[in-house]
Automatic annotation (TrEMBL):
Taxonomy of the source species: Bacteria, Bacillati, Bacillota, Clostridia, Lachnospirales
Pfam families noted in UniProt: TsaD
Cofactor: Fe(2+)
Name of this protein: tRNA N6-adenosine threonylcarbamoyltransferase
Organism expressing this protein natively: Hespellia stercorisuis DSM 15480
Family stated for the protein in its record: Belongs to the KAE1 / TsaD family.
One example GO MF annotation: tRNA N(6)-L-threonylcarbamoyladenine synthase activity
Free-text remark on how the cofactor is bound: Binds 1 Fe(2+) ion per subunit.
InterPro entries, alphabetized: ATPase_NBD, Gcp-like_dom, KAE1/TsaD, TsaD
Location within or outside the cell: Cytoplasm
């Protein structure tokens, strides 16, 4: 089954051809990052317009790279939520048009199901059940993947997402947007134990996260230094902040892995490409004899191959969407 997948939920216009959910035949990503960097974040109206400009070209390239035409495609997969409504609509409208013109089945995909499914592409032996930590720009979800397409959310952030915290702290120390990769890099020059930033734990919800207190604490630290006219070490702030995030992510996640008695664990989402997070998870999993899975960095951030992988398993389970498919900006994982 060859699926042409389309992703346009935020600031990447992406298309990919994926065979049987696991074999990535092409993966084309047109990123708008340079454009949005000028504004310090994603501007929704600009994102939508740019998607419209790029989408046909990106799809043509994905087909060409796969050595195919639409005649070789068996189904269309598309992200229909969550995300920016205007951005999502571009991909959804395009997918519906192709499905209608070529009389192909249409499969709408949840963006986070896509991030989780990115793991299937390079890890051919990974099968549910497993625990997955989704850490992206808008989500921090601890998920029990019971089966393909079957998810129990066992923990989530109460406030900011992990990626959001990285981006906000990066902005505060003048690193610019997107902050995650820049904090990752600068942290290597800093001391992670230099500043004891707080780590939030919730007694009543051991698998939940909270990052807004940590973010405020970093901002307060910077303000206090500026008031006293003392220089602060940006690399130490980056490293100490990053450590505080990672410690909580690892602790809560491993509690879930132990509690659910799982021997497989995966990470997903943009923050999953963080080198220190990967290293810390690797160690924690090795201590438990748990197999650790993660996508390559290019499959961690937004792409369409992950949507193709997710669409395949939805397709096999019988999911079909009509030409009335709409963008759902606040779509919940596990909803249809
Ligand atoms: P969502 O998937 O929740 O809708 P999104 O699609 O915007 O949000 P992703 O593309 O999955 O998010 O990830 C982008 C986020 O990942 C940004 O917040 C970015 O700073 C963060 N990120 C990327 N690389 C790294 C890294 N090496 N270390 C930490 N964070 C990173
Ligand atoms: Mg993005
Ligand atoms: Fe994403």
């Amino acid at each position: 089954v060859n699926i042409l997948a389309i992703e346009s939920s935020c600031d990447e216009t992406a298309a990919s051809v994926v065979c049987n959910g696991r074999e990535m035949l092409s993966n084309v990503i047109s990123s708008q990052i340079d454009l949005h960097t000028l504004y310090g974040g994603v501007v929704p109206e600009i994102a939508s317009r740019k998607h419209i400009e790029k989408i046909n070209q990106v799809i043509e390239e994905a087909l060409r790279e796969a050595g195919m035409t639409l005649d070789n495609i068996d189904a269309i997969g598309v992200t229909y939520g969550p995300g920016l409504v205007g951005a999502l609509l571009v991909g959804v409208a395009e997918a519906k048009a192709i499905a209608y013109a070529k009389n192909l089945p249409l499969v709408g995909v949840h963006h986070i199901e896509g991030h989780i499914s990115a793991n299937y592409i390079e890890n051919k032996n990974l099968e549910p059940p497993f625990i997955c930590l989704v850490v992206s720009g808008g989500h921090t979800h601890l998920v029990c993947v019971k089966d393909y397409g079957k998810y129990d959310i066992i923990g989530r952030t109460r406030d900011d997402a992990a990626g959001e915290a990285f981006d906000k702290v990066a902005r505060a120390i003048g690193l610019g947007y997107p902050g995650g990769p820049k904090i990752d890099k600068l942290s290597k020059e800093g001391n992670p134990n230099a500043i004891p930033f707080p780590k939030a734990h919730m007694d009543d919800a051991p698998y939940d996260f909270s990052f807004s207190g940590l973010k405020s604490s970093v901002l307060n630290y910077i303000n206090a230094c500026e008031m006293k006219h003392v220089e602060y070490n940006r690399a130490d702030i980056a490293a100490s902040f990053q450590k505080a995030v990672i410690d909580v992510l690892v602790e809560n996640t491993m509690k879930a892995v132990d509690r659910y008695d799982m021997n497989r664990f995966a990470i997903a989402g943009g923050v999953a490409s963080n080198s220190s997070l990967r290293a810390a998870m690797e160690v924690a999993c090795a201590e438990r004899g748990v197999q650790f899975f993660h996508p390559s960095p290019i499959l961690c951030t937004d792409n369409a191959a992950m949507i193709g992988a997710a669409a395949y398993y939805e397709y096999m389970a019988g999911t079909r969407h009509g030409l009335d498919l709409n963008a759902v900006p606040n779509l919940k994982l596990g909803e249809r």
